[in-house]
């Protein structure tokens, strides 16, 4: 939720640039011959959804924002149709806006959301000033990390980690005595 002037073109171009930069947002996850596959797609046309709701009271704005956010969060993201990111700008008029970004957790975790937010701010600032992207091209994509992780597992390094935790967790685990609203069952 924010107030002030907004350059919608710069906002939309900022998100398009994020989608272009991050292959994982342009990846579809499909089944081919009974096996899951991740397919990276070229950049396609994409737009921010805009909902105009002028003339609402502050209480109505908050209520509508929550309703739209809840409604959109309830819609599944089709993993076979990238991009795996959706955005909605709610224009309440009088330079008041709500902004929602939906990203499927298969392509973005909490850490990545922080990066996405930082990039959005940097890109929007630059694009509002008519400047090109200030962000360097990415040297590593998520698929690179996934390949490294797979090699790590295949080379047996994971076995030492599993053995460590099996030793640490062997035997009865401690009971954490926390205040409860009812008597703890014996099992």
What would your notes on this structure say?
- The protein has 187 residues and is α+β, with helices and mostly antiparallel strands.
- It is built from five helices and six strands, in the order E-H-E-E-E-H-E-E-H-H-H.
- It has a four-stranded mixed sheet, covered by helices on one side. The protein has a two-stranded antiparallel ribbon with strand order 2-3.
- Strand 2 and strand 3 form a beta hairpin.
- The longest helix is centred in the middle third of the chain and has 19 residues.
- The chain starts with a strand and ends in a 19-residue tail after the last helix.
What's the overall average pLDDT, rounded?
Answer: 92
Largest sheet: 4 strands, mixed
The percent range for helix content is 25-40%
Number of beta-strand segments? 6
Structural class: alpha+beta
Kindly report how far apart the N and C termini lie: 47 Å
Q: What Rg, in angstroms, do the CA atoms define?
A: 22 Å
Portion in strands:
15-25%
Q: Which stretches are low in confidence, meaning pLDDT under 50 for 5 or more residues running?
A: none
Instruction: State the strand order across the main sheet.
Output: 1-6-5-4
């Amino acid at each position: 939720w924010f107030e002030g002037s907004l350059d919608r073109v710069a906002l939309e171009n900022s998100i398009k640039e994020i989608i272009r930069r991050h292959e994982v947002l342009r990846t579809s996850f499909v089944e081919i011959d009974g096996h899951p596959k991740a397919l990276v797609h070229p950049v396609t046309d994409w737009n921010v959804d805009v909902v105009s709701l002028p003339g609402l009271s502050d209480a109505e704005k908050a209520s509508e924002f929550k309703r739209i956010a809840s409604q959109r969060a309830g819609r599944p993201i089709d993993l076979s149709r990238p991009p795996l990111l959706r955005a909605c700008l709610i224009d309440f008029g009088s330079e008041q806006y709500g902004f929602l970004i939906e990203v499927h957790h298969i392509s973005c975790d909490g850490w990545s959301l922080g990066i996405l937010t930082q990039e959005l701010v940097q890109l929007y600032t630059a694009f509002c000033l008519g400047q090109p992207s200030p962000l360097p091209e990415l040297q590593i994509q998520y698929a690179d990390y996934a390949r490294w992780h797979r090699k790590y597992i295949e080379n047996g390094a994971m076995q030492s980690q599993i053995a460590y935790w099996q030793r640490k967790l062997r035997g009865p685990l401690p009971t954490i005595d926390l205040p409860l609203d009812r008597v703890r069952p014996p099992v």
